Amino acid sequence: MLARVGLRSSRIVGSNIAASTAALHTSASRKVDIPFLKHYPQPPGYIVGTVNDAYVGPKPSHSHGSLHWSAEKVIAIGMVPLATIPFVTGSFAPVLDATFATFILAHSWIGFQSCIIDYIPTRVYGKQHDYAMWLLTFGTGIAAYGIYQIESNDVGITGLLKKLWTKPEEKK
Q: PANTHER family from the xrefs (predicted)?
């Protein structure tokens, strides 16, 4: 049985099991690369200068620090009641619906911004990081216009979700 999964049985109780399980935990190292993005070569270990140089961190900023995280938490927690209240009470208030749509858009923008910061970093991709951020902002603007159209000319986000989740009435 153990031979099927790559382990050898041992006659000695308490033998070094870690050495026999090494075959299960080895995998090829694969470098993920985005082919159409030109990137700058990085120094070994991403160390600029020498190992003994002091770390120079980014300048402290409240908008990118504590206020940023607090706003993300408020938006994420605020979406829960805004998503459930209209369905529980059955009333669709336009102000709540517009606030919910704005929170969805802000939550999505923050999430995609984090993905761009993590996977298209400035130190590796340079200006293409800025292009990705501008593309995100442009797409968010188009989405905001679409949400405005849904809110002003249609039933709103909550009404749209209710339409999608309810079975259409059959015509007789």
A: SUCCINATE DEHYDROGENASE (PTHR13337), SUCCINATE DEHYDROGENASE [UBIQUINONE] CYTOCHROME B SMALL SUBUNIT, MITOCHONDRIAL (PTHR13337:SF2)
